[in-house]
Amino acid sequence: MAFTLHERLAADTLLVADLPLCRVLLMNDRRFPWLILVPRREGLRDFDDVAAKEKAKFHAEIDLASDVLREVTKAHKMNVAALGNMVPQLHVHVIARFPEDAAWPAPVWGVGTAEAYGEEERRALVERLGRDFRG
């Protein structure tokens, strides 16, 4: 069965890169630099659904996303979470946080209204992140 990205994730994000296991997406909300990793496997809902032989790769890709986002944004703190209450497809949020951001120190969910990236800002950020994932 082919990998299909959940419609909500597709609507809210921009493609950055495909790693060996995960698709890397940028949340289209400029208030919070925010990556989402989605394992390209059908039927995964929770961490324990990831095959044992792929768990190390999954965690390594989450670590890589944290490193890349921290380097690009110079984040004060990285938040990593997998909730899945609104979108059942397994996905991991990697969010760069700053003491001056709109939600600090609380979680970013439900704070204000998303602000989409402008065309140039989006293009530049996706290109920079993509380069860093390719090495």
Structure description:
This protein has three helices and five strands, in the order H-E-E-E-H-E-E-H. It is α+β, with helices and mostly antiparallel strands. The chain has a single domain (7-134), classed as HIT-like (HIT family, subunit A, 2-Layer Sandwich), CATH 3.30.428. The chain has a five-stranded antiparallel β-sheet. A hairpin with a 3-residue loop joins strand 1 and strand 2 (22-27).
Describe the secondary-structure layout.
Elements: H1 7-12, E1 13-18, E2 22-27, E3 34-39, H2 52-73, E4 77-81, E5 92-97, H3 119-134
Antiparallel strand pairs: 1-2, 2-3, 3-5, 4-5
Corresponding CATH superfamily: HIT-like
Provide the β-strand percentage band.
15-25%
Topology, number of strands:
5
Output the helix-strand order: HEEEHEEH
Q: What's the CATH topology name?
A: HIT family, subunit A
The multimeric state of the shown protein is single chain
- Largest sheet, strands/sense/barrel: 5 strands, antiparallel
What is the name of the CATH class?
Answer: Alpha Beta
Low-confidence stretches: none
Q: What coarse outline follows from CA principal-axis ratios?
A: globular
Protein name: Histidine triad (HIT) protein
Organism: Parvibaculum lavamentivorans (strain DS-1 / DSM 13023 / NCIMB 13966)
Pfam families: HIT (PF01230)
Domain HIT: 35-104
